[in-house]
């Protein structure tokens, strides 16, 4: 691979937007893994070449000015150096590398004190364009059944009329006097009272190219912009069983800048809209099963809910020999959860029992009250010996909505709705009051 074809970001396995810290970390990892001293003799020559690429990639990308030149002009800006890289010469000794990672300093203009580089305008680097990230909201029904949607898209592509040059055929670009062909300029930026810093920015005259076409020489189609707008109908397919956070990638459908060989991708991140009935965890679903008190005691046979695909889910619950449903009891229905991707299998449906008690006044007369008492257990017989204390007080009560008033004004962290002690006894309550 020639130097002009090398992608330094790929050499270090980092993204184009990587920070200095990420670049340094990636360099240390790659350098240690590929150091020639760590491979057999017959593999040393190949490892040496790879290690030189890693070393010089770090030298360029860790320096803001060099990195900007590389992003603007590619490796052609450094072809005066050894092996197509700036600074030539051997890489560091393994001991020196470890010393750098664990407290040692770095000399020179790069990680190994290698030589510097000048400003060399050249052809733009060609690579893949930037990806475009978007969130795409979907309902649980759409994730259950799958969804395909079509939409119109407009993106920038390289002008085919001028092949991305921005100029007419045989026209020559004028060297930019503002940046002297470098594609970048330096400016001072205040960072505090009496303090300034120097930073490198893209040249506004030539848009970072180092040259430009005068109006009469510009391409008639793109007007010198090097790119044109392209309209297209795209299709987005969400497979059944997809989950929140998953990415749907439309390859090559993002914008293409003049420096990009291929366009970037449009990446849709799925966002699941909250459902009023179902809760999802992986391939399983959970819902509330509302039953009347009579159904909890005697059973039922009916449709209890409508599933995500519109089917009614029917349960036949038989309560033999007095067996009853209890609040918060869980009923598991196998195979009625979410579908697994690329499979006919499904997760399970978990139903949490919620018992709906009758409204006040549903017993119209004493005869009805007596009838219920006769049917329900626990209404007959005297209390067992020892269950009733010697002294008994009859007290009055009032109904409240919740425990908000419990311990109010006491500064006790257990006050209010935070108090939960279902298994406590009377003595525990007395201790809380002391």
Note the main attributes of this structure.
single chain, chaperone, zinc ion binding, HSP_DnaJ_Cys-rich_dom, unfolded protein binding, 434 residues, three-stranded mixed β-sheet, 9 helices, Helix Hairpins, alpha+beta, four-stranded mixed β-sheet
Brief summary:
This protein is α+β, with helices and mostly antiparallel strands. The chain is built from nine helices and 17 strands. A hairpin with a 5-residue loop joins strand 14 (299-306) and strand 15 (312-318).
Task: Describe the structure in your own words.
With 434 residues, this protein is α+β, with helices and mostly antiparallel strands. It has a domain at 3-125: Orthogonal Bundle (Helix Hairpins). The protein is 20% helix and 25% strand. It has 9 helices and 17 strands. The strands form 7 sheets. The protein has a 4-stranded mixed beta sheet. It has a 3-stranded mixed beta sheet with strand order 2-11-9. The chain has a two-stranded parallel ribbon with strand order 1-10. A hairpin with a 2-residue loop joins strand 12 (279-281) and strand 13. The longest helix has 18 residues, at 44-61. The radius of gyration is 37 Å and the shape is elongated. 22% of the residues are buried.
